[in-house]
Amino acid sequence: MHSHPSQPGLSVLRRPQVETRTGLSRSSLYALIASGRFPAPIRLTPNTVGWLEHEIERWIAQRIQATRQQGL
Question: Of 6, 22, 60, 71, which one is least surrounded by beta carbons within 10 A?
Fold first, then answer.
């Protein structure tokens, strides 16, 4: 059996984890996705989606940078 080291940044987050990390509600999350302003989820199974952790972390960092630039 071969072991494959996990690749950094390829962790998958489920919706409750994304909501906790971003502070967004479910409806806000999906509204941002629909408008193209939040990373789209990936399909894990026919009834399950998740988000790549590095994409969520990048989105949070971008929000911090945009907020700091606006002086808020």
Answer: 71
User: 9 phi and psi, to 5 degrees?
Assistant: 85, 0
Alpha carbon separation from 62 to 37, 44, 55, 65 (Å, rounded): 11, 26, 10, 5
Other C-beta atoms closer than 10 Å to the C-beta of 6 total 8
Residues 6 or more apart whose CB falls under 8 angstroms from that of 12 comprise: 42, 44, 50, 51, 52, 53
56: tokens are 């969520």
Round to whole Å and give the CA distance between 42 and 56: 12
User: pLDDT per residue over 7-44, tens digit each?
Assistant: 665 899 999 999 999 999 999 999 999 999 999 999 99
